[in-house]
Amino acid sequence: MLAFRLPVWIPARPRHAVLAAAVLLGLFSAYRYLWDDISSPIPYRSWTPTEYGGSWTLEAKSRPGWTPWSLETTKDGNADRLRKAKGYIASILSTGISSHQKIGCPSVDQGRYEALKRRRRLQLGSRRSWFFALDLRQIVDVLPTLMGSIVEVIRFLGPENCALSIVEGLSNDGTLEVLKLLQRELNDLGALYYLQTSDINSRSGDRIGKLAKLRNLALEPMMAHMGDWDHAATVVFINDVAICANDILELLHQKELQQADMTCAMDYHSLNGRLAFYDVWVSRSMNGDSFFHVPWAGDWHKAWDMFPDDEDTRSRFEARKPFQVFSCWNGATAIAAGPFLDGRLEFRRAAKNKGECGAGEPTLLCKDMWSMGYKRILVVPSISLGYGVGEGRLVKERKGYTSNWTSSEETSGLKIDWKPNPPDMVRCIPSWRTQFWKPWDHALGI
Fold first, then answer.
1. What is the average per-residue pLDDT within 30-55?
2. CA 59 → CA 54, 55, 366, distances in Å?
3. 405-415 in b/e burial notation, b at 16+ Cβ within 10 A?
4. Domains of the chain: which residue ranges?
5. Close Cβ partners of 158 (under 8 Å, ≥ 6 residues apart)
6. Residue 45 backbone phi and psi in degrees, to 5
7. Nearest alpha-carbon partner for 382 in 322, 437, 432
8. Using alpha carbons only, what angle is made at residue 162 by residues 409 and 237, rounded to the nearest 5 degrees?
């Protein structure tokens, strides 16, 4: 009779089934909680190098049946979203009033960055110099700011010197359609533009293996035409951030000024009404530690105590002076193209079969760069980025635009005194509950 008192009658046997399902769900939730790898939160089959790797590496070319990468025709897109995309294109190409929200970027600092073009003419000759790579999904509202700034930088540096490669995946908000319409505009400018679509879903299964594959896909057009690229060229990877042209150019400027192999911005997100550094899982300072401490329970109350055990880095960060790190990414980065063009470097997942602890693909990229002798990795703290237009605007208001800092820059102590060796030990964070220290090069060469 009890069953009839319920709003909906559930027969006894199905009721047992519901109870069993609830128990299974509880066990699954507990398993997820106890699973000790942030990069792969549920059981999965690890992707192999054949699946996540780039086609250009020496190892890939040695495999039986190797075939070179080729650009496939992208999806047609939705007709209604294609019509709406025209307004986004107008906003992207306009540096003035826009019908879509932007974060309000200042104009390019011509005097500060003119030297980039001069050095390019002196050093690289006729080959292309700057390769912009992005992996984008479901971010149509960010495109007027993000793509508008990239187009502005391409115009400034010279379209004939640039290429843009974008991998779009699983968007239904118009992202693909806007990127398709951008093709003609970039071609008319004289820049190379490669657009790929992918069905890889990095939000399930082997997350890091899939992210590595998506980043490698974005690099494939450069590697397929490596003869067009000078060994001293630069790859600029940008996340789905609200970025300004001066932010991108400052990454390139500091890479040249500091003679760096890799430069990163700082990215932030809103946390309890305050802005906190975002990419803490990936980035490590030169003492091998994370930029701030995250207790084992994932408690973020220490998020505003940056570099607690590294006073030199902390002082440079607070003064907005570039500082050397072991690893970074932080929303946007400029990387030396040389190790990629040599066929030695790619994005990858951790080699757990060799005992390598779980880590993000940017951390592993930096680790591999150190092992190859590319030791000059730095963060440019004057570049502050946020995700989404609203948060991006908030970050600029509270942290300042890059030009706010560079216009009053103190040249004293600006240049980095490079440390030639990495930290002996680096904090390994396969999960917030399981953190420990490992030699920086553990599992390499095994």
1. 73
2. 10, 9, 19
3. bbeeeeeeeee
4. 54-60+79-107+114-439
5. 117, 120
6. -95, 120
7. 322
8. 65
- Between the alpha carbon of residue 173 and those of residues 136, 139, 169, 182, 290, the distances in Å are 12, 7, 11, 16, 35
Q: Does pLDDT of 144 surpass 80?
A: yes
CA atoms of 370 and 366, how far apart (whole Å)? 6
DSSP string, 171-228: --SSHHHHHHHHHHHHHHHT-EEEEEEE---TTSSSHHHHHHHHHHHHHHHHHHTGGG
Alpha-carbon distances, residue 122 vs 118, 230, 402 (angstroms):
6, 12, 27
Query: Is the confidence at residue 126, as pLDDT, over 90?
Result: no
**Candidate from 32-36, 140-144, 189-193, 226-230 with smallest mean pLDDT:** 32-36
The answer to whether residues 180 and 195 touch, using CB atoms and an 8 Å cutoff, is yes
CA trace torsion 124, 128, 131, 132 (10° rounding): 120
* Residue 193 phi, psi (nearest 5): -135, 125
Give the residue among 308, 312, 326 at the shortest CA–CA distance from 427.
326
Distance, CA of 328 to CA of 342 (rounded, Å): 22
Angle formed by the axes of helices 207-224 and 361-371, nearest 10°: 60
CA distances from 386 to 136, 236, 395 (A): 15, 17, 6
- In sequence order, which residues have a C-beta less than 8 Å from that of residue 305 and are 6 or more positions away? 292, 293
323 in helix, strand or coil?
strand
C-alpha triplet 386, 392, 393: angle, nearest 5° = 150
Q: Among residues of the chain, what percentage have pLDDT more than 90?
A: 80
pLDDT of residue 4: 33
The answer to whether residues 39 and 349 touch, using CB atoms and an 8 Å cutoff, is: yes
What is the C-alpha separation between 320 and 406, in angstroms, rounded? 9
Whole-angstrom CA distances from 94 to 88, 158, 185, 272 are 10, 18, 12, 35
Average pLDDT over the chain, rounded to whole?
A: 91
Query: Which amino acid would we find at residue 384?
Result: S
| Separation CA 338–CA 312 (nearest Å) | 30
Q: What is the pLDDT of residue 7?
A: 35
The model's pLDDT over 344-360, given as tens digits with 9 standing for 90+, comes to: 999 999 998 899 999 99
400: tokens are 């300042």
At the second CATH level, the architecture of 54-60+79-107+114-439 is Alpha-Beta Complex (3.90)
pLDDT tens profile 376-434: 999 999 999 999 999 999 999 999 999 999 999 988 899 999 999 999 999 999 888 88
